[in-house]
Design goal:
This protein is mostly helical. Helix content is 87%, strand content 0%. It has a domain of 25 residues. The longest helix is centred in the middle third of the chain and has 66 residues.
Length: 103
């Protein structure tokens, strides 16, 4: 009877458990490979999106720099406004002051 149990145990291990363990090992190996491939694909897409975002940001900065008023243009507008205000001030200074009661 002792030999029957050991033969049954060896038979069970050889016929049932060994193929099941091998199948589980193969399944785990495939799942691991798929996960690694998926993560690598996500990394590639994230890198591409990052590069596209950096390019878009650089283009936006360039557009802002093109449309932004230069220092020289700002100084020119300031000079013109100052000259115009000085002319207004001279005209006001040349007129007599009006009385508060309207006469």
């Amino acid at each position: 009877m002792e030999t029957t149990h050991s033969i049954d145990l060896v038979w069970w291990i050889g016929v049932v458990e060994l193929p099941v363990v091998t199948a589980l090992f193969v399944l785990i190996w495939r799942i691991r490979r798929e996960v690694i491939d998926a993560v690598e694909g996500l990394r590639r897409r994230a890198d591409a999106a990052d590069q596209a975002l950096a390019a878009d940001l650089a283009a936006f900065k360039l557009e802002v720099a093109k449309q932004y008023a230069s220092n020289e243009a700002t100084r020119e507008v300031e000079r013109r406004l100052t000259a115009h205000l000085l002319r207004i001030e001279q005209k006001i200074d040349g007129q007599p002051l009006l009385r508060r009661n309207g006469h």
